[in-house]
Specification:
This protein has 159 residues and is α+β, with helices and mostly antiparallel strands. The protein has one domain. Helices cover 56% and strands 14% of the residues. It is built from four helices and four strands, in the order αββααββα. It has a four-stranded antiparallel beta sheet with strand order 1-2-3-4. A hairpin with a 3-residue loop joins strand 3 and strand 4. Helix 1 packs across helix 3, helix 2 packs antiparallel against helix 3 and helix 3 runs antiparallel to helix 4. The longest helix is centred in the N-terminal third of the chain and has 25 residues. The protein is globular and about 45 Å long.
Length: 159
């Protein structure tokens, strides 16, 4: 992978995360929503916890934890760049971008802005999330897939 992509891809993901959060904050009042259809709404909520709004009001702890994860990921990507597959590298860059996007929120807003609300009518709603959360989830999923189905030495799919 070209060196500039190590910085460009996460920067693009973080920018997309913050542009979408900015648009939500400017256009939807806090704790309000815009219903797109029975399955999707755009909401304006914040979260001082982690996934599914667990462990609320621990912002300082999560700032420190995410900083450690970011530093560890940067070190890991740099140290093992020649051993990682492209899929593994991209998955780690997604995780790095997601952590960075939400860290910026924690540092400058005191909480993470969540706005994507999916579910079925009012029967079941998934907890609101954002682009950064999606980056982390997709990155972790891709990394697990690469670990399970791709040969690390030959960088080929296991069949």
């Amino acid at each position: 992978m070209k060196k500039y992509l190590y910085f460009l891809l996460p920067a693009i993901y973080v920018a997309l995360d913050h542009i979408t959060k900015f648009l939500v904050i400017k256009n939807i009042p806090y704790h309000s929503f815009v219903k797109i259809n029975d399955y999707l709404s755009i909401v304006n909520v914040s979260n001082t916890g982690v996934a599914f709004s667990m462990f609320q009001n621990n912002n300082i702890f999560f700032i420190i934890l995410v900083l450690l994860v970011i530093v560890t990921l940067i070190y890991f990507i740099y140290k093992y760049k020649n051993e990682l597959t492209k899929l593994q590298t991209h998955s780690l860059l997604l995780i790095l971008a997601g952590g960075t996007g939400n860290l910026i929120d924690r540092l400058f807003r005191g909480a993470v802005v969540d706005f994507i609300d999916v579910g079925y009518k009012e029967v079941y709603r998934w907890p609101a999330f954002n682009v950064a959360d999606s980056c982390v989830c997709i990155g972790v999923t891709l990394f697990i897939i690469s670990a399970l189905f791709f040969d690390k030495k030959n960088k080929k799919a296991k069949v």
